[in-house]
Amino acid sequence: MSLLIKINRFCRATHMPPTKFGRLAVNDPRLVHDLRLGRQPRRKTVERVERFIAEARP
After folding, report:
1. pLDDT at residue 1, as a whole number
2. Please, which residues have CB within 8 angstroms of residue 11's CB and are 6 or more apart in sequence?
3. pLDDT in tens, 9-58
4. CA-based, 20 to 30 A from 56: which of 3, 17, 19, 38?
5. DSSP state of 1
């Protein structure tokens, strides 16, 4: 599953705006927007996003 799909599912499930997600996960409010435009995240960014999602889920 792609990172963008994971982020979109998380945002829908938590009713979190994409800009807030990016800011909280990796301190980049444009993260989701840029990913939608084709940005390829670095491995560390992917790891931070996945860790944020895992820790935020109850």
Report:
1. 80
2. 17, 18, 21, 32
3. 999 999 999 999 999 999 999 999 999 999 999 999 999 999 999 999 76
4. 38
5. -
Cβ–Cβ under 8 Å, residues 11 and 18: yes
Q: What is the pLDDT of residue 29?
A: 98
Contact 50, 6 (CB under 8 A): yes
DSSP secondary structure letters along 7-58: HHHHHHHHT--HHHHHHHHHS-TTHHHHHHTT----HHHHHHHHHHHHHH--
Q: Give, to the nearest 10 degrees, the angle between helix 3-14 and helix 18-26.
A: 110
Query: What type of residue is 13?
Result: A
